[in-house]
Amino acid sequence: MTHSDDPFFVSQPRQHFPDAPRDCPLCPRLSTFRNAHRKTQADWHNAPVPSFGDQNGRLLIVGLAPGLQGANRTGRPFTGDYAGDLLYSTLDRFGFSTGQFRARPDDGLRLDDCLITNAVRCVPPENKPTPEEIRLCRSYLEATIAAMPDLRAIVALGRISHDSVVRALGLPLKAAPFKHGASHDLASMAGQNLTLFDSYHCSRYNTNTGVLTAEMFHAVFQAVRNRLDTI
Ligand code: URA
Hints:
With 231 residues, the protein is α/β, with parallel strands linked by helices.
């Protein structure tokens, strides 16, 4: 089978990574949802979506959860999801990717110095994970953070991702309250040289309603780039 025949081929080779197993049993509601889609959409990924990019990168981007017909279909975060268009064009603009994003996992895109993951690895009904699902899936987020030896910056897309990152780092939420455009120096708090950057999620809803503009999103990544270029 060649790359182009394989719907699950991912352009950047997967490293030994703490990703959820295909039949992860932690969240019964999410297992039932993805099993139902395995019956009706047999050619979709329909499983926890693994992180994508460079495990040795300095930047981790944390989204919310795969979209049903996007990342849940293609098996790569933000790929096939509307939100991916702004995210991947921004990564290209600030030098965090090589190649062209074509919204399919075999487009050959590589992430440079950067990894993308989700706070919740499985698609939730109506894009809304429950607090318990977010809590249960946090073990994978914690393991992902722990598996990035050179991590210096995290971009959290939206408040849910932000809160899950703060908790994954063992911090109280009040230590780093979510605010679009804010950055939190976690060096003293989390005991590591790490800055958390907050952004509104680049969802279709947020961009269509003007809650988040491309300029606002670019400003967040400009701040990340400035930070990484000075350490
Ligand atoms: N697709 C993802 O993988 N994550 C999101 O947060 C949104 C869309």
